[in-house]
Amino acid sequence: MKRINQFTRNSMLNNYNIVMLNLFQHLFIANIHYARFRNKFGMTFFDRIERRAFKTIMLVLLWSTLSAAQFQLPKYENYILENGLTLYLMEQHEVPLIYISAIFPAGAVWDENKSGLAAFTADALLFGTKNYTKKQIEETFDFLGASISSHARKETAEITISFKKSDLDKVLPIFVDVITNPTFPQVEFDKRKKRWLIELEQAKESPRRVIGSYFDKFIFGGNVYGNPVSGSNSSIEDLNREDLPGFFGMHYRISKLGVAVVGDFSTGEMKNKIESMFPRTPSLEQLNLIIDVNKDINEFEKSNVLLIDKDDSRETTFLIGSYGVAWNNKDITQIQVINTIFGGRFTSWLNDELRVNSGLTYGARSRFTNYKSAGTFYISSFTANKTTIEAIDLALEVLDRLHTEGVDEATLTSAKNYIKGQFPPRYETSGELADLLTTMYFYGLDDSYINDFEKHVDEMTVEKANEIIARYFPKENLQFVLVGKADEIRDKVKKYGEVTEKAIEEDGF
User: Fold this and answer.
1) CA spacing 20 to 30 A to 275: which of 72, 332, 334, 393?
2) What pLDDT score was predicted for residue 38?
3) Which residues contact 372 (CB under 8 A, 6 or more apart)?
């Protein structure tokens, strides 16, 4: 066993206590100064003061206190066991609960010509194991008030459990057996396959549930990042029960496994339990799990439009975008700041223009989706069929304004304060911290991703912000994916690029 490192961190709870105490102190002081202004000069004078300037000053004052208590990753231990398993242990004793997250490189990028196999395999881990039937697993967790789940994403498969501290010895053996000894019984495979096919058909009734799969396939084409996680009707129909143990044996290897345990436990005792329950030696056969992640990824030479016809639709759902950035991009934090301004919060430029000012939609956003070796950027919204062109044009105008006008100091300061305030609550619970640690493991992120987050935000200047916009926010050769009633919008959307049309009832994406 190799011990990697040990970190001493201020606890998240103490950080919050300091932040909130100082926040209330500043609010109290600000209220006193406001009252003195009114008493000395009267409201007539005060009304002549620029209120926005006053608010900006107060935000700067408040944030000078917040920045003194920056969020840090709580203390944890990190080990690589003899069998190659990477283990993270983080004690959190506020409540008697434990959360365990496991992650494998077993997502949809590994599906090859069997689209949906990774997701089906992850789902089927809970169908029964060598030592526990599906019924026993479900009844044990239900009786204890615990939870267990498994699922696959684009790149990974994840298995998580949460439970009371006192139930550790009841649920941990099941968790380990699910990861190491699933049996994939035929009867459960057949039942799930029938439901899966029905769910695929139902999903296409809601464009917002499937447009992301259409977009990924349109952007990445034959590249593995274009693989739809849930597969298609034909690919799921072609799956056999024998496909699952083959995929499992190839991709669910202990030497590739990352496990994070967060909650009320003793590090030494938990480490010993994990070591004793998992196989002590790695598999003799170490397969090369390398895929060509760069295959068929080329810069777009022109804009293109994918129009998915849903002939009973009264609205058009659309995504506009291109390639984004991978997880390891050095500017990923500062990209988030700019995206907050552009389309990452309710008061973003996109939402202001498309929802608040024009009433064309109930919501408009932008997002960067990050993968290990690639990523996407897109604008997303929906609108009535008759206002499709108006909404898309307005979204493009906002994107153009981002590039031509950039951001000013006040806008940047607001976004920086917002994103720093939203960051700590993302990691409040044991479950969120466990998921964070397995994410850091898979994507090769170190502690600086968390501990230097606010530093990277604070270092951002207007000049740097405008460099980020020019470098990472696509403007030319954008790709358009629309789901709507083609007869009403077909001719109008031709101005955005060459149109490819398909019916939503067609198989796949």
Assistant:
1) 72
2) 46
3) 155, 293, 326, 327, 328, 442, 443
